[in-house]
Specification:
about 240 residues, alpha/beta, six-stranded parallel sheet, three-stranded antiparallel sheet, 10 helices, 9 strands, about 15% strand, binds nicotinamide-adenine-dinucleotide
């Protein structure tokens, strides 16, 4: 049960802000059935990221790399966005949220109806040839196809460990966050660089909703250690009651 005082505090922050930007991580999608990476049930307790989700694996251990992403794509097939994604999309419709910046590669913010979404780590379903960049479908990837044009290996359009973030997306997301009156950070351990630098440059108020404590809690004006879906649903209800 989330304390009603913090729900009201976040509602007031949202009402007072003229420009709210949301930054999300894997934690907003765990309620859709997608495991995150670093909490106790997360991926990285079972698998080493440097071994699979990396440029090194793609280039030197392609079968392991492909199997890992085939598994993640298969897992996504049976899952969809949850109430947290939907509430954020509704808040964009109502003008309460101006943009969502996400580390997630699942596409759930867009599926839920958010329009201004910055996918800093790309999208798992945007398959391309690693060598010549020709576009392919998820079906091609899961069926172990190679590039018809150059014979190269297919890969999802995600930013791998060892790769840089797309600079234009990064710059736009950075500008949104720096200038926001309110930055609402949801479901991230704030361990992945450079994304974890974003809350430190934000000039406005900062709120963190995360199931567990992070090493950056101190920089936030308000920290709510609870599940994102129930916090967002609680704030949504409080907003409706006061409008
Ligand atoms: P992370 O796994 O490092 O941290 C997730 C955080 O979310 C944890 O601190 C956990 O306590 C919290 N959390 C889990 N469930 C929650 C809930 N219901 N409500 C609130 N908080 C919850 O994830 P990260 O910080 O996003 O960084 C991991 C990297 O993994 C990112 O680069 C991202 O691209 C990638 N990733 C993406 C997905 C996805 O697209 N759904 C899934 C796993 C990992």
């Amino acid at each position: 049960m989330v304390d009603s005082k913090v729900i009201e505090e976040l509602r007031d922050y949202l009402n007072q802000s003229k420009y709210t930007v949301v930054l999300t991580g894997a934690g907003i999608s765990t309620e859709s059935g997608i495991p995150d990476f670093r909490s106790k049930d997360g991926w990285w307790n079972k698998i080493n990221p440097a071994e699979v989700a990396s440029i090194k694996a793609l280039e030197n251990n392609y079968e392991l790399f492909r199997d890992f992403y085939k598994y993640r794509l298969m897992m996504l097939e049976g899952c969809k966005f949850n109430r947290g994604h939907k509430i954020l999309a509704d808040w964009e419709d109502k003008g309460l949220v101006k943009a969502v910046v996400t580390q997630n590669i699942d596409g759930f913010h867009k599926d839920a109806g958010s329009n201004r979404v910055y996918e800093l780590h790309g999208s798992i379903s945007a398959i391309r040839c690693h060598a010549c960049e020709k576009k392919y479908t998820v079906e091609d990837f899961v069926n172990d196809k190679n590039c018809q044009a150059c014979g190269g290996n297919l890969r999802p359009g995600v930013v791998l460990f060892g790769e840089g973030l797309p600079s234009y997306v990064w710059q736009e997301a950075y500008d949104e966050i720096v200038n926001a009156d309110l930055l609402l950070v949801i479901g991230t351990s704030l361990n992945v660089s450079p994304v974890n630098s974003l809350p430190t440059v934000a000039k406005g108020k900062k709120v963190l909703i995360n199931a567990e404590k992070t090493h950056m809690d101190d920089i936030f004006d308000l920290v709510i250690n609870s599940a994102a879906g129930s916090v967002l649903a609680g704030v949504n209800k409080a907003l409706q009651e006061t409008r």
